[in-house]
């Protein structure tokens, strides 16, 4: 239970509809408290909701917001921000996630995004608060934006290998050495990922993400045969991974495809 002030809650369009009538007259809450029906939504976490409610008291870009929303929890706060229809907070979470994209975080973000993706069936995502509740609309929009950024980042890593493979062979193992116009060595930058690293990355990703990256039009392949060869190498690397360490997302996807196939078989039998 949270003890909050109505004047603060009114900043949220979601709470404003609960506390005001259609003529913008303040409603009297007889029980003295509001109950939120979000317990069955696995996207809404206790931490995410607490941070979102606390943010209502100071919605500007202060030290409190900067310290409470981190690359570790931003993806957990984002659904709660969408549930309360806090666009500014959702935008801040999105910015935090974009700034945190790296080789070390990209796999965790991809897996987490799959776990909290919007439902495929719109009826399954219907809000108990009616059609005016923009939770799923906002969540679908922001989830899509983060998803696009992750795909673009992954594509950039693969393109870095495809475009700089020859260059990376001639320099040191750890750094790409560049020389400026004055003849001095520039600050070393991270070298492009080699094929073994790319294969390892695409092996640990859920299969759905691998498909998105390898089928993307932004992938810098010389031709479709080169894309085919890359797909074959990645597929071979994924098959070599022991089943016990494969991503749970892959197993869930396989189960989903199995159910879909069974459903198609039943439909064909019923038509026959």
Can you walk through the features of this model?
By secondary structure, the chain is mainly α. It has helices at 6-9, 13-19, 46-55, 63-68, 74-83, 87-100, 106-115, 135-170, 195-204, 207-214, 224-239, 248-271; strands spanning 175-176, 189-190. The chain has a two-stranded antiparallel ribbon. Helix 3 packs across helix 5 and helix 5 (74-83) runs antiparallel to helix 8. InterPro entries: SKP1/BTB/POZ_sf (IPR011333). It comes from Rhizophlyctis rosea. This is BTB domain-containing protein.
Q: Strands, helices and their partners?
A:
Blueprint: H1 6-9, H2 13-19, H3 46-55, H4 63-68, H5 74-83, H6 87-100, H7 106-115, H8 135-170, E1 175-176, E2 189-190, H9 195-204, H10 207-214, H11 224-239, H12 248-271
Antiparallel strand pairs: 1-2
Helix pairs in contact: 3-5, 5-6, 5-8, 6-8, 7-8, 8-10, 9-11
The helix-strand sequence is: HHHHHHHHEEHHHH
Shape: globular
Low-pLDDT stretches: 172-177
Strand content: under 5%
Total count of strands? 2
How is the main sheet built?
2 strands, antiparallel
Order of strands side by side in the largest beta sheet?
1-2
User: Mean pLDDT, nearest integer?
Assistant: 75
Helix content: 55-70%
Protein name: BTB domain-containing protein
InterPro entries: SKP1/BTB/POZ_sf
Brief synopsis:
The chain is an all-alpha fold. It is 57% helix and 1% strand. It has a two-stranded antiparallel sheet with strand order 1-2.
């Amino acid at each position: 239970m949270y003890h909050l002030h109505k004047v603060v809650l009114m900043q949220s369009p979601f709470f404003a509809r609960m506390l005001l009538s259609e003529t913008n007259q303040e409603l009297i809450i007889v029980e003295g408290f509001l109950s939120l029906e979000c317990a069955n939504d696995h996207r809404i976490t206790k931490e995410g909701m607490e941070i979102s409610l606390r943010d209502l008291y100071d919605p500007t870009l202060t030290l409190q917001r900067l310290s409470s929303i981190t690359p570790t929890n931003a993806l957990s706060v984002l659904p709660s921000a969408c549930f309360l229809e806090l666009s500014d907070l959702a935008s801040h979470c999105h910015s935090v996630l974009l700034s945190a994209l790296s080789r070390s975080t990209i796999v965790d973000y991809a897996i987490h995004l799959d776990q909290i993706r919007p439902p495929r069936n719109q009826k399954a995502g219907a809000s108990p608060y009616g059609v005016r509740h923009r939770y799923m609309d906002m969540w679908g929009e922001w989830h899509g934006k983060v998803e696009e950024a992750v795909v673009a980042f992954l594509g950039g890593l693969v393109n870095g290998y495809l475009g700089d493979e020859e260059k990376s062979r001639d320099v040191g193992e750890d750094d790409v050495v560049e020389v400026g116009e004055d003849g001095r060595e520039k600050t070393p930058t991270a070298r492009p990922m080699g094929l073994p690293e790319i294969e390892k990355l695409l092996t640990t990703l859920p299969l759905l993400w691998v498909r998105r990256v390898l089928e993307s039009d932004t992938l810098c392949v010389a031709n479709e045969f080169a894309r085919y060869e890359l797909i074959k190498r990645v597929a071979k690397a994924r098959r070599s991974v022991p089943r016990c360490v494969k991503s749970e997302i892959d197993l869930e996807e396989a189960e989903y495809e199995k159910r879909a196939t069974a459903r198609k078989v039943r439909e064909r039998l019923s038509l026959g």
